[in-house]
Design a protein that fits this description.
2 domains, Rossmann fold, about 15% strand, alpha/beta, 14 helices
Length: about 375
């Protein structure tokens, strides 16, 4: 447990730095950055010997001031995470923030973001689905503390036997990263998007993301004057998954935070039809940027967004169409923008980092 100069040793699982960035890896990265920031500021993590165990090559980890990177041979592999990591992290507390952790290290904290692999198994390839069903509960049940991102996610973990509710702590995601970069309007100019003239949606072939209800809504005549803009997959990818985007849908592909902020700020609204979400980061990002949100009242969305968004039925295309049109009314639009910005301010990475440091203090002290 004792590291450099008698300090408690904290090992951070950095395997996720070898893969593409996604919602889970973004959260894991930001939490590690917050521990580093708090250490520099002289808060509790300053007293810890923090080591980031990460892949030796091909990683996108940022530089740190207080956390020491320790590159690992084959640190990108699942075999390393399950068998090499517990050896490398012996003698200290191990913290993993990207769903997976080794079962053979008992002195650890593990963050599990959701149980979509159980709630919507058809959304995952069989190999990934069964791998998660085996490894996620194994890592979580052998952890001293489990973290997750909402009360809904905590209840889901308990329902499916992934982690005990009494051993699980909730740390909400932050969303203020979207304000750290200046909006870049190039994506709007490239696709000739008119401010306020389009609705925005993150595309996905995953069944639980429920893109079909939005596509059905935008196939209706009453939305002929509103452009649908899809971030992420192409038309061909969506059609291969038996989804049918309307003919005039615009596909902008992958977008960085600068482009995403510009899209949020100029959109008529963000559409978020998911059937289940452990947290739901895009609605909070959108609200932070002054973009009204229409969402399905499912998963953690009511917990996170409360009454700051407009809700539409999970399978009711007409409700989605009517909600889009309702946001043309200036009073309602202004109220949802103001309410959304107020609600979004509750979700900062600084608050998440402070709560994480408190949880780790209890764990390391124990």
């Amino acid at each position: 447990m004792i590291g450099q100069a008698g300090r408690p040793r904290l090992f951070l699982n950095g395997k996720f730095y070898s893969g593409a960035t996604n919602g889970v890896s973004r959260v894991a990265d930001r939490l590690i950055r917050e521990l580093d920031r708090l250490a520099v500021a002289g808060e509790a993590p300053a007293a810890w010997d923090m080591r980031l165990l990460l892949p030796r090559a091909r990683n996108w980890a940022p530089p740190f001031a207080a956390i020491v990177p320790v590159p690992q041979w084959r640190g990108h592999s699942q075999a390393w995470e399950q068998f090499g990591l517990p050896i490398a992290a012996r003698g200290g507390v191990l913290a993993s923030f990207a769903n997976l952790a080794p079962g053979f290290h008992g002195n650890k904290l593990t963050m599990v973001h959701d149980v979509q692999f159980r709630l919507s198994p058809e959304s995952y390839p069989a190999k990934l689905r069964w791998g998660y069903r085996l490894l996620v509960p194994r890592g979580a049940r052998s952890s001293r503390t489990v973290l997750t991102v909402s009360d809904y996610a905590r209840d889901s973990l308990a329902t499916f036997g992934v982690a005990r509710a009494e051993a699980t702590r909730v740390i909400h995601n932050g969303a203020d990263h979207i304000l750290e970069t200046t909006a870049d309007r190039v994506v709007l100019e490239r696709h000739r998007l008119i401010s306020g003239g389009y609705a925005l949606m993150f595309g996905s072939v995953a069944a639980y993301k429920n893109a079909a209800v939005v596509f059905a809504a935008f196939a209706r005549a009453e939305l002929a004057g509103v452009q649908l803009v899809v971030i992420g997959p192409s038309r061909a990818t969506l059609e291969a998954a038996q989804l049918t985007p309307p003919a005039n849908t615009i596909f902008v592909g992958g977008i960085d935070d600068a482009g995403l902020r510009a899209l949020y700020e100029q959109a008529h609204c963000l559409l978020y039809p998911s059937r289940t979400e452990g947290f739901g980061l895009p609605p909070v990002e959108a609200m932070m940027c002054g973009c009204p949100v229409i969402a399905a009242p499912a998963g953690a969305i009511p917990e996170v967004c409360r009454d700051a968004v407009i809700y539409a039925g999970v399978d009711d295309a007409q409700e989605w169409a009517l909600a889009v049109l309702a946001l043309r009314e200036p009073g309602l639009r202004a109220a949802k923008i103001a309410g959304g910005q107020a609600r979004a301010r509750a979700f900062s990475w600084a608050a998440a980092g402070t709560k994480l440091a408190s949880v780790l203090t209890d764990l390391i002290g124990g």
